[in-house]
User: Fold these one by one.
Assistant:
Number 1:
Amino acid sequence: MHLHGDRRIYTGKLDELVCLCLKVQRSKILETIEELNAVTVAQVRRNCRAGGGCGSCHEEIARLITEHRLNLSLDFGNHITGEDEDHSHDDLDFFLAQESSGKLLENQVITEIKDFIESEINPYLAKFDVVAQVIESGEELVLDLKGADQELKYTLGFWLDHQFHKQFPSITVIIA
Ligand code: FES
């Protein structure tokens, strides 16, 4: 269930038009998230119309929501000031690059993924009252997000994509 629009790059300025389609500035989106204590892109869209067009701003709206809820500074690599991600490959990444395509994920990798979910993902998802569980680890990793409806799954999908991509670049994550 991934409906990401085209990737855009942002300046991060408050007067920046994050949503070009509906002409909504970053400051308005932040205000809306704050006021509603919003947890989904759809809530923001319904309230201030941002995100109601092509969808290319959804990633940034989702990033702002997640930042707000987790009280963290998040870099999804979509800002002009951000450093490019370092894709230095450790042993696990090398293993995955060699072995994962078209095959079942190996037990060792599944264990690494489950540990990662336990220690790095679920403590944060708890702030959304959501728990991630692996429901299938075949050619792709299928996650269930218990406690999340479709709107929240969509919104959290952007953050999860980014977290998994940093840790396991070769794995495709699907939210059930
Ligand atoms: S830029 Fe926001 S919906 Fe198109």
Number 2:
Amino acid sequence: MEKQNRRSFFKSAGLLTATIAGASTKSVKASPENILSEDRMGVLVDTTTCIGCRNCEWACKKTHNLPAGELNSYEDKSVFKEMRRPDSSALTVVNQYENEKRINFPINVKVQCMHCDHPACVSACIVGAFSKKENGSVIWDTDKCIGCRYCMVACPFQVPSFEYDKALDPEIRKCDFCFERTKEGLLPACVEICPVEALVYGPRSELIKIAREKIKKYPDRYIEHIYGENEVGGTSWLYLAGQDLAKTKALPALETKTAPGVSESIQHGIFAYFVPPASLYALLAGIMWLNKKKKESSEGE
Ligand code: SF4
Ligand code: SF4
Ligand code: SF4
């Protein structure tokens, strides 16, 4: 009952946000980019609840028109033998790790883009293709993207991937927080399908309160850490666990310092001895843009 109320609360919250977002959807292009809204949404992942069914992987592929196969093929647990990373064919994956507390009950950790509050990908993108939206999503504009792949290098979670296997017009791919669904008032596909509500969608600030309550109520079940609350300045996706996910190597051990600061200082450090970054970026952007246009026109012909 409590679960149903909670789900409907978050559904309503989603709808409310969607209504607000919907009201501004038409003006999304005109609205300022890279906003850190107080009302931004997030997902709370409870790794102590996740059963590793991988339904989320299937739903994500279906929603993003990626070859998904039959849902029952995801019952194959042999995939857990190796660690997988999200890539252009799977925007989210679930990995399995040894449970420090209960040996026969491995923990399952779903990974995807974290939708950082201060995204390194946004900071690194030299043509402004990436942006952080009001609802918390970090998305990118394929028309602006020149394929330089700086976002891939900058991301502290190693998330953006490139369609290397695509001969014509390969693109950057990553979890887009189901931007097209949420703006219509729908839940992200992975959240909607999760059979045990291991994924809860809602305003990030509310999710943090819920996570704290859970930690307080079940101190034996959870460690006192919400992964993503402060890592790299905070992320929209948050994790609860019974053990340190960074030590488990399920997620990277990161400082609270925002990643763009790090990547910017790297870039500035490198380029300080060469040409000013802006000129070099402009030159690179120009070359890549020309290449892209040349390719488009030859494809057109
Ligand atoms: S996880 Fe990586 S790709 Fe996703 S928002 Fe953060 S920096 Fe960008
Ligand atoms: S939010 Fe959407 S894009 Fe991201 S992992 Fe879930 S289903 Fe995939
Ligand atoms: S659908 Fe839910 S329970 Fe199943 S693997 Fe994904 S997060 Fe875990």
